[in-house]
Design brief:
The structure holds 2 protein chains of 2 kinds. By secondary structure, chain A is mostly beta strands. Helix content of chain A is 0%, strand content 53%. Chain B contains no helices and 10 strands. Chain B is globular, with a radius of gyration of 13 Å. Chain B is mainly beta. The chains are: A mainly beta, B mainly beta. The interface between A and B is medium-sized, with 22 and 26 residues.
Amino acid sequence: DAKTTQPPSMDCAEGRAANLPCNHSTISGNEYVYWYRQIHSQGPQYIIHGLKNNETNEMASLIITEDRKSSTLILPHATLRDTAVYYCIVRVALGNFNKFYFGSGTKLNVKP
Amino acid sequence: GAGVSQSPSNKVTEKGKDVELRCDPISGHTALYWYRQSLGQGLEFLIYFQGNSAPDKSGLPSDRFSAERTGGSVSTLTIQRTQQEDSAVYLCASSSRPSGRETQYFGPGTRLLVL
């Protein structure tokens, strides 16, 4: 029941912007888009999330299309430490809890 | 402050044995989630606890899996009669706000290997 589709891997040159795409064409109006990343052998780390509007924080920017069927995570100046698997997630509200649907993720390789 | 901690970090067991995995959430977090991550795969939801409410067990793969959360804090995931397909990383996450702008904080995981 995957709700997101991501490319399995991407390369990015160090210092350049990394743009990671995600398709979530079946997303509903009250479902949020989240991004987490997982560095090898560690637990996932929260990056950013949004509903309709674009969001920016100290780590990244999130661009959500007007129809909300896709989004892009932007790391403005990728470093070698940004090499990780990046998960695009749809958060679905089910009664009194939120279920996070993780996809297969994109392995970002930042190269010197 | 301290993040989510899990123990043991690694567990090797023989097929058929029972195992217990522990999760200590961030202090004050009322919501606690367990996930399973098989090699090279995304995260699979297992179970959710919120305060004193009955847990959502909809993700547990079989009746060999159970979990409890005592005192609204520490949680234990138990796998009975382990099978080789149970080998995976078991991740715990906690959050303070189960609705609205919820952010889950993950522990480092327990790597389970069933021989």
